[in-house]
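Hi support team,

I'm filing this because I wasn't sure whether my run with iron/sulfur cluster finished correctly. The job status page said complete, but I'd like someone to confirm that the output block is well-formed before I use it downstream. Pasting the exact inputs I used:
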Amino acid sequence: MTNSWTDIKNADVVWIMGGNAAEAHPCGFKWVTEAKAERGAKLMVVDPRFNRSAAMADHYAPIRAGSDIAFLSGVVNYLLSNDKIHKEYVRNYTNAAFVVQEGYGFDEGLFTGYNESKRTYDRSTWDYEFSADGFAVRDMTLEHPRCVYQLMKKHFERYTPELVERVSGTPKDKFLKVAEWVASTANGERAMTIMYALGWTQHSHGAQNIRTAAMIQLLCGNIGIPGGGVNALRGHSNVQGITDVGTLTAAIPGYLALPAESEPTLESHLGKRTFKPLLPNQTSYWQNYRKFYVSFLKSYFGAKATPENEFGYQWMPKLDTPYDALRMFDVMHQGKTTGLLCQGFNPLMSIAYSGKTVAALSKLKFLVSMDPIETDTARFWENHGEYNNVDTAKIQTEVFMLPVTTFAEEDGSFTNSSRCIQWKWQAADAYFEARKDIEILSDLFTRIRKLYEKDGGKGKDPLLAVDWSYKDPMHPSADELLKELNGKALVDLKDADGKVVRAAGQQLASFGEMRDDGSTDGSMWIYTGVYGPTGNLAQRRENTDPSGLGVFPTWGFAWPANRRIQYNRASADPQGKPWSDKKKYMYWDGQRWTGPDVPDYVPTIPPERATGPFIMNQEGVSRLWVRGLMADGPFPAHYESFESPLAANPIFPKIRGNPVARVFNNDMEIFGSAKDFPIVATTYRLVEHFHYWTKSVHANAVIQPEFFVEISEELAKEKGIKPGQLVRVWSNRGQVKGKAVVTKRMIPLKVDGKIVHQVGLPLNFGFIGETKKASPINSLTPPVGDANSQTPEFKSFLVNIEPVPGPVA
Amino acid sequence: MFQPIANPTTKPVAPKFGDKDLIRRSASNITPAAQRQPEVAKLIDVSKCIGCKACQVACLEWNNLVEEVGINVGVYDNPHDLTPNTWTLMRYSEYQNPESGNLEWLIRKDGCMHCEDPGCLKACPAPGAIVQYSNGIVDFVHDNCIGCGYCVKGCPFNIPRISKVDNKAYKCSLCVDRVAVGQGPACQKACPTQAIVFGTKDEMKKWADFRIKDLKSRGFKNAGLYDPPGVSGTHVMYVLQHADKPQIYANLANNPSISPVVEIWKGVTKYAGLAAMGAFVAIGFLHHIIAGPNRVSAEDEKNAEKLTEGKA
Ligand code: SF4
Ligand code: SF4
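And here is everything the job wrote out:
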């Protein structure tokens, strides 16, 4: 989230799209009900289904799954063509004024630089025009024909309300009401928050969905202000933490990059990332990348990391290609994987195309499941009739189940969607023989290291080099780990005058204290400050909010730097005054930046210097145009899902799917066609369950006991399906059976001249647990991912449906 | 935000009310407490309920109830009705609003309304099986229950359920044990959106006014409070977007009142408890005037007979 859960109460308009907060985030949703009840905020929901959030909404607009970019681009066009944008914000705080170099073009759905056989772009034409001094050229009048603002107007003009209706199936009046409510916030007096989740990410164009939303918020001036933001609602209590700490496939902790094969030396890695400002007087925070990276290496390799050995850079693995989950299983499916350690992971249920997942797991020599509950994956070899129809005798994989403690059985911290790190204390003893994850991993690590010490082998050096100096190497404590993420001074740190500012051994108070000469460590710069010299701030539980704006500055610690709203310098105008009294947040008081939050800015830089509020960007401003930073274009464009109910993309008929999304072995066979599979399906969770865990919990099984399929009354009639009847749903990859929930909440949409039906498939069921047995929902889904993040396309694919003859429950 | 009730101390606290605070006791003559405790109420704001069922699970957990895992029959309601273990149940209704043309998904938390004038208690022939405290809470005392099922028939909201296991009647107690030590009911504590709030009845009415104003400002011109006068008001109240049409909320009673038959019966039990009357007379009478049109199931009847005979 750019903002925080508690900040949602400051919104005047709440827009939920690409998510279903009431369903998947019921506790956070309370801030929506607060905004409504206490502030009179309006809630609008755009979704293929009239869902639980829609039940709370003042306005609901239906949409065809997978057509979000057309809808959102329609909003962009509405704002631009009606001139309903926050002009001064756009002019000064976005790159609207930047001039794009000659040579860029967009034609028939493709940007310049496309290579069809490689399915990639050469992005060199997607850049700014630079002047001789190396700075980007701007036209503050926004009139230059090649400035971003003008390019945008042209790019988005095709997305008229009529086109939105034709592509997305949203009736024009319902679309326009959304656009008008958005526009009502483009003035610095009112704020809109956007809440989204996997309904936007899980598409072959997921990243561009979110980007288009960000563009809307920038046009309205809704970033950096209370009640605004583009707010990603995270799906687990600590998934923000797990992303921060570097489980992304190409990242190390704190969103720094894993070395690539093409970066043989530390300098070659850092050199590529020593960004210089693109405008005069900009901060470009990433200039500090080197300090963060070296501190990370010092944490990892301790005393063994020295300037002479590039701080141990050579011990880091060098990435040849990103190993996201889809690729991991593709490689496994090719028989190239010996063993898989599943830690809190149930891939048989959660990875697209379960048929392939079972085949892949069957090729392993061993599978380890570290989990507090018995997972379907750990039992993938067992025949469960039609729900998991495998030939056990043919599977040779040896499976180990290592029971681990649950969150309540250990100390540690959670980082929530608000980026707030909150400590939690062990509440119960471990159950039976369960052990903590960290103990199992330490045990494994220690044993493997001993074996290497004794016998040697490939990859021995990094393992021996790792600094494992915990008090008890077999039981590193959560306290020690958080301290390590934070970092400390390794020698006395002195300022320019030679004064000691941080004594050797002391914890660092902020990432600003990190150095690139090996004198500090700290494995995750963004968390620095959480465990500073005054102790563990994640343990703070002071429930006071002096400003009344939901800041709660002394509750836990929000990264970075305990900042609750990111980019908050943008809550004031270029002169440093709040845009309006209603949205007063951070402002210049003549001496420094002040307000209820920690400024996202150098606190003493005066407004006259015109340093941009987006200090993490080289431009100092936000990007409506992303240069070459995204694989599929500097602007978004509507692409159909790989499985689309339409014969062709109605806007760009020559393009199938996202032109740069990865399809393994270019295997288009995997996709079904609208002729055989005319119905659009989307998957989602239910509030009664948490992923694939609570199907093993009795009370949750009671309140939602069995897999079902949501269909419209019209589709039920067409197919002869009665409420409660068992139906079969199948795609080109597999089938599932469930009870029909026939509902007015699903409606057929008219898209490009034809009626399109959609069905809803909840994902929480499986063949292990207390709920009635069901096949994995991902038997149906295609293994194609977003072009940027490789997040699978779970939210829109094609199926067919028929009633299963037999008595109706 | 409604000021949440503070967490309790971990030290034992003396209950704030008890037997001395009874105002009614089934099939018994009692002298009501001279002074009433402040009347309490739970306010369920249907317009804020997201139907998450946290309240339903909180009820199971706090009261140590184990419900069976059922099946899906084509709706979100699970289980499909109140049971001896499910004392509260979310009921989902899809309502196509003819005026606005909008679909509305109305989600109502069903359960005992804790009527000021409780039909269950009046119908109950077993002395002390149902009691009402002066703060308004209506509670079943299972040791005294004979399982005859007449409370089910006497209740205008069709709430109590007879257990097949121990043949006793069960329903929501408004977490009388929690309220007695200054806490709100478990469902209220669990509710993430404050769709359930708890306090004195006066506070709840005031809060309801605030909510109704908001709903009216959003175009629900018939928004209102459900506190039906036919049972002299209730200690569980609803805020409804369409207070003029309670029936669209999964058949919420439009104008609930106690059946006249129960009122007559109440006259009889008031002066002669079940034991004094003799079981046969009682059962005969009940069978004649209550079970006739309403029908207590044959099995309930037989069980009740067996039990009462054994006791008599
Ligand atoms: S709702 Fe029914 S069970 Fe509850 S107090 Fe009223 S009459 Fe008795
Ligand atoms: S806990 Fe609250 S929001 Fe959830 S179902 Fe119950 S009343 Fe509704």
